[in-house]
Amino acid sequence: MKQFGKIFKFELKNYLANKVFAGVTIFLVVLLAVVMFFPKIIDAVKGTEDEGDTTPGELAVMLVSDSDADMTEYVSAAFEEAFTDYEVKVVTDGADQIKQQISDGDAECAFVIDGLSSYTYYVNNLSMYDSNTEIADAILQNLYQMHAMAESGMSAEQIQDILSMQITHETEMLGKDQMKNYFYTYIMIFALYMVILLYGQMVATNVATEKSSRAMEVLITSAKPVSMMFGKVIASCLAGFVQLLAVFGSAFLFYNLNKDSWGDNGIVASIFDMPIELLIFMLIFFILGFVIYAFLFGAVGSTVSKLEDINTAVMPITMLFVIAFMVVMFSLAGNSVDTPVMVACSYIPFTSPMAMFTRIAMSTVPWYEIAISIAILVASVIGVGVLSAKIYRIGVLMYGNAPKPKDLFKALKQA
User: Fold this and answer.
1) Which end of the chain is least crowded, N or C, by CB within 10 Å?
2) Reported confidence tier of residue 368, pLDDT bands at 50, 70, 90
3) How far is 358 from 351, CA to CA, in rounded Å?
4) pTM value?
5) What is the distance between the alpha carbons of residues 38 and 311, in angstroms, rounded to a whole number?
């Protein structure tokens, strides 16, 4: 335990004193501050622009031409009520004249209405966010229904009662709100993906650096391999946790400082309103998932003699994790997260941190399945940790080309 404590403190100090570690953390905190303060920044910029303007801004012009003179008054009134961001002008010009006005910039768009069931929409540059035709469709459909009901002899009051009928409904949720929990799940999976790839690579690189400097040959004789491996991995895990706590803690603080500015934005509010039960499961699977992969990265790093061989050596582990990530992401995009593949992945230690958490967040999972998954994962972490320590002890004394898996198994068997 004393050896573990010394190695743990030494490795943790190296991580926290690393300039890249501090720089990335500060950058992410500043970036989140900008994002969380964005509504206030926009309001401040708009306020400055408004103070500098001496004349109020003009609305964009929308032209409306209706072939049915009897309905023109109703059409123009409906368009003026719906398109509040435009100055709606009723014209009798022909299509060529209307197109010329739009090309010259005198108008932004125009509706040439042939009847309540047909029209032509003219616009110079069609924006990908242009929803004017959808609004116009709803307007004309409503007017068409009113006109048809009036011709059938219905009174204005009867027409109004029919068109203003509001449908009410109630939703009784017996399981999980997938729309709300989707954001928690996505953030946890993406954070785990980034942390494992970043810190796993750092663990492997640190081990390989110590091996290339021959420092391991001295350390391995004065400290147990298990203490060294667990000290390095737990230190990297804690460093990553501190970084995530700084990033997400600052995001939570900045959000609460700007909560009023975000208003009723349900997506942003749901991210910072995670249920405590889900938060506990997220921490459990996040920590265990990170540790098991960190052990693998550390073991592989001990078998490499040159730093330039690190990327090639860790490629199988990286691919294994990427496959697990893709399986979970495809399940999130599908109709169900309880597919046979996801259920199986919930018990495989290399995929369960993401798969089981996704199922917990997005569906109803029996408690015994969760308990079995966590038990398998904990046992696998301990087993992989001990095995990695043995590989570490053998690997740091091997130089030259990276040993093949069969050579490592032979050395482990002999040891």
Assistant:
1) N
2) very high
3) 11
4) 0.64
5) 39
